[in-house]
């Protein structure tokens, strides 16, 4: 932001700014930091409202609806649904849904971009450490995959988790590729927005690092509430782990890959893993 060459009239005050003492006689200085924080709050709400924050609100409403109808153990949650009874229209809708769901990620890249700096390098979504990132992703696959199956089974036994159907798509030649793309989309969207973007923005607004991690993880759990309380707890804990790893290593790439691998396994091998 450039410097202002002329002082503002004494009775004029920019929106969102407040007077600060200490300026020369006859000149009023303003706290532009207040305005910046207000803009960041609005920016975060806008990004979340266009993406996973919106999903969290819908998820809470869906949970309430399911609880009002029957016990959660009798409910179902279908993750990949048929959009049309006609094969190629269904394929078109599936691909359009994946594409437009990734637009908030492009918005985040735009908001985080700085002249002369790579936004991908900034959040660690690049290929600088392929071996380390790959091994880390495989480790996370085990760490989050196995407990997720246990939490799902426990939730079903306790009656606090719906039956999860990873895919209800008809079997076409494109079904598996679309499920893989859907899983990758989930990994990119959730980890870029909830970790690579949100943590830094919340801290700039004034959250402590611990509070930022808690809020991010709480939102992550919330947009899985439509599946029941077991997935909420599991994804909240997953959020805590992923945020801690990102704060420690500054790499979102292994988180994206691990998340995508977990979803690929669930979407393509659901019945074998105990889903549906």
Report on this model:
- 66% of the residues lie in helices and 4% in strands.
- It contains 11 helices and 4 strands, in the order E-E-H-H-E-H-H-H-H-E-H-H-H-H-H.
- It has helices at residues 32-49, 52-69, 87-101, 103-112, 119-123, 130-158, 175-205, 209-222, 229-249, 253-268, 270-273, and strands at 19-20, 29-30, 76-78, 163-165.
- The strands form 2 sheets. Strands 1-2 form a two-stranded antiparallel ribbon. A two-stranded parallel ribbon has the order 3-4.
- Helix 1 packs antiparallel against helix 7.
- The radius of gyration is 22 Å and the shape is globular.
Biggest pleated sheet: 2 strands, antiparallel
Q: Could you give the order of the helices and strands?
A: EEHHEHHHHEHHHHH
The helicity comes to 55-70%
Number of domains: 2
Number of continuous helical runs:
11
- Please give the order of strands in the largest beta sheet: 1-2
Give me the secondary-structure category.
Answer: mainly alpha
Our estimate of the beta-strand percent is: under 5%
The averaged pLDDT comes out at 90
Shape: globular
As a whole number of angstroms, the C-alpha radius of gyration is 22 Å
In short:
66% of the residues lie in helices and 4% in strands. The chain is mostly helical and 276 residues long. The strands form two sheets. Strands 1-2 form a two-stranded antiparallel ribbon.
